[in-house]
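Morning F.,

Quick status update on the modeling queue. The single chain you submitted on Monday has been processed. Sequence for confirmation:
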Amino acid sequence: LKDVNDRYGHLFGDAVLAIIGKRMREVLRGSDLKCRYSGEQFLVLLPGAGVDEAHTLADALRDAVVERLVDGLPVTVSFGVAATGGGPFDGEVLLAEADAALYVAKERGRDRVVVVAEPSGGAGLQHDLDVTAESAALVVASVEPHAMEAVGRERPLEDLVRAEGATVLVI
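Structure tokens below.
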């Protein structure tokens, strides 16, 4: 995202993230919770989902993002997936596991989904973030716009955002 911000400006970088967020919302279930986590990263909490369902959903999210350029800009997304086995879990541990899987995805060439091989899901750990659920999965996504490969950015930012139906909030 830094290359996009440097080349086209931070407002365009934020617009790219808003558009990617909108595309992700179109795939997610009504019970799923998505938020921007850090820079170009999103977190998606999938209540009631096991690891297989989370992997399938992460693949669908990746497809929804990469299938269309954002104003001539190719975008890929890498995903890390971790899941609980049910019962109490520690959100910090689950996040650390999903984040570690994300870094493996990036090391393997990006634009892929990596699932934690042996997730602990923080089972048995007791912290303030404990949540009881039948099962849950956490997906960490890292958006990777490719500024140097842009076909040509001709539309004004407002037209781009309007055309994609996204919202950018500038404070």
